[in-house]
Design goal:
Order of helices and strands: EEEHEEHEHHHHEHEHEEHHH
Distance between the termini: 25 Å
Low-confidence stretches: 241-267
Strand content: 15-25%
Strand order of the largest sheet: 6-7-8-3-9-10
Radius of gyration: 19 Å
Number of strands: 10
Mean pLDDT: 86
Number of helices: 11
Structural class: alpha/beta
């Protein structure tokens, strides 16, 4: 479990967070929505211990991590993987070497076990035939799927995603969101997705958290989101509409498309 309790953070002369309360249950998928500059990626930095809050507490698993030093944080990060917005693949390494990079760097597995993990992870994302290819040979969507395979190969308890569909076309965005959904349905890993992409949020979220002006302005399930009349929530869901005229309507386009099916194939 990840839990933020009354977390405050001031950066420069600006209160980035003003008493954030947030919870991610074990095996759950939490989507954090917000406009650019709302602090979504900063939440991930707090979860990774890259920055510390000024006030409040953060718990990960059964440990309060707020006051941990760097050495203690290393043990917490051991259970985490990160999928970066730009995929962050090493251009000089093959796909297989990228996926197995952390395993080899940490030296915790024999080579045969690493190759097995790499193969299994690439199979899960549908790219088992790319193991010897270079990142330059891949499309943007394929690179993002390789990044997810790399995260999975480590065997984490928590995967953090920073704008996982950023820069992708609709077809590849759908594919990435379906991978996140498959992981949720299989269980065993908690996922935190920060995004401003309403479509991926709708596809993968069990609970939505919407952040605006340093606070969580909405935290709930889809049916509750439908009923929201909060102007800042409606401004995100229907950015091109007259927010004043939407009070009480509560049906953003995020909720209006049919639920997609998972593509065939098993991990």
């Amino acid at each position: 479990m990840i839990e933020f309790s009354d977390v405050w953070l001031r950066m420069g002369n600006h209160d980035t967070f003003k008493g954030i309360n947030l919870r991610v249950w074990p095996g759950g998928t939490r989507v954090i929505l917000g406009l650019s500059g709302s602090g979504k990626s900063t939440i991930l930095k707090l979860m990774l211990g890259l920055i510390k809050p000024d006030r409040g507490t953060i718990r990960i698993g059964d440990r309060t991590v707020t006051s941990m030093d760097e050495q203690e944080w290393q043990t917490v990060r051991h259970d985490m993987s990160m999928v970066f917005q730009g995929s962050a693949l090493f251009d000089s390494l093959t796909v297989g070497e990228n996926v197995g990079y952390r395993l080899r760097e940490e030296g915790v597995h024999q080579e045969a076990a690493i190759e097995q993990r790499v193969s299994r992870s690439l199979c899960f994302v549908g790219l088992e035939d790319t193991v010897d290819m270079m990142p330059s040979d891949l499309s943007g969507g394929m690179k993002k799927r390789v990044a997810i395979a790399r995260a999975l190969a480590w065997g984490p308890k928590i995967i953090l995603y920073d704008e996982p569909t950023g820069g992708l076309d609709p077809a590849n965005s759908l594919m990435v969101s379906e991978l996140i959904l498959r992981l949720h349905k299989q269980g065993g890993v908690s996922q935190v997705v920060v995004t401003h992409d309403l479509d991926i949020a709708r596809r993968v979220a069990v609970r939505f958290a919407i952040i605006n002006d340093g606070t969580i302005v909405f935290d709930g399930k889809e049916e509750e989101l439908r009923r929201s009349t909060d102007p800042s929530v409606l401004a995100l869901l229907k950015p091109d509409a007259d927010v004043a005229g939407l009070q009480g309507e509560g049906n953003g386009r995020i909720l209006q498309e049919p639920t997609p099916t998972i593509p065939g194939g098993q991990a």
